[in-house]
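> Could you send the Heme ABC transporter ATP-binding protein prediction when you get a chance?

Sure thing. Input:
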Amino acid sequence: MKLELRGITKSFGTLVANDHIDLVVESGQIHSLLGENGAGKSTLMNVLYGLYSPSSGQILVDDVPVSFSGPADAMAAGIGMVHQHFMLVPVFTVAENVALGAESTSFGGVLNLGDTRRKIREISAQFGFDVDPDALVEDLPVGVQQRVEIIKALVRNSKILILDEPTAVLTPQETDELMEIMGQLRDSGTSIVFISHKLREVKAISDTITVIRRGKVVGSAPPDTSTTELAAMMVGRAVNLTLNKADATPGAETFKVSNLTVMNDSGHRLLDNVSLSVSQGEILAIAGVQGNGQTELTQAVLGLHKHVLGSITLDGKELVGKSVSQVLESGVGFVPEDRQDDGLVGELSIAENLILDLYKKAPYSRGGTLNRSAIAQNSVEKVSEFDIRAQSPRDAAHTLSGGNQQKVVLARELSRPLKLFIASQPTRGVDVGSIEFLHKRIVAERDAGTPVVIVSTELDEVLELADRIAVLFAGRLMGIVPGKSSRALLGLMMAGLSAEEASEQMQSQKESGTTGETGEGVQL
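Output:
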């Protein structure tokens, strides 16, 4: 089935999210839509799936114009979508989730799942999905849940499948499996629109690539186009994708986490007996699929959790039991994973956001009164030093792009002497050019002798920055390995194997010759 978009424009008030976009997806083709977060990719797909009505433009399926008033119309036209955040009911079975919205009932209104189970088994057999129709979704690994979403679309006879950032919650091995499934779907005649900001994935699986920047199509490219060229298309300028950093020269082990357990209000362990340490002048990266205890670890350090057992020390001083302000006073710099909710006050100016944790101190305050000239001078210096793109430091922080908002947070946290620097998802939603800059600043802080902890779900980022890597799974520490460890090893640990078990499994596979290095197929 062929899909064509002609001049699609979608506006939200004065914001033009999609600006006269033309796109052709041929039958049996994997067409990747590449662009940074906020470029307009997901908005465009939501228009295609009937979630949004286009402000102008036309959608054609097999050269016939169509219009959708909702997802049901899109599905009826043969278009299916797997959202980045799965649309599944955890307490329902696979069959119940697949039937949801298209239920078949027998005489008397009793739900009839027999036909749905049969179709699930047929599709599972055809593509090697290995999905049990009667399994509860909440008991399934994330990768299998994603297969359930794909089965939902195929049961509804989707000939065009939209995959929106499908690898965001997958381990490297699960990503490889998804790529194999996509290849099988293409070979069976299904057209796939693959939305991603990950250059290597796009290059590995695409038949053709369309790049979107700021809501506009800036060009198309074949999959053998270099990552450097694709990055330049995404950003609009040349970008150095390789971080050149010297090997770490660790000093004293000044930050220690010992037997740390974090519980929720009902007593469930979100973090289970985790111990690790970081030395001065090194970067420890915390890796793992989102939701495996990373957030709880950083929040426990900052004093944001009530139910904490164990010890967290900095320079020998206990942080557990301290307030957030006391932790910051002890020399901790912290970049939260959600900059808009936790890192900035959007309505305040850039200048004011740059001194949020310093406003009570000289030179920014005198006798309880803010020193506006000192605040203004600081903002001019930091805007220049951190290359914050703004018309004026007096602009409200919410008017900045995501990358520039992140630079404001980073500039503030690195503007005072630190004994520990923690950055959670430091480049989430940030363009490639800003990533280059932020990574250099993080390494510079390491080289100044500060212990650095980075939490990231992006393996590229982990491998780029880390001197050592700690992997969390289900709140437990699977092990700590060197920063130059393979993606295959990290992927197995992210799936729940200890470092020793993962190494043994890889060695066994190597000796038996059953596979190469698992997880390396896509070169994530």
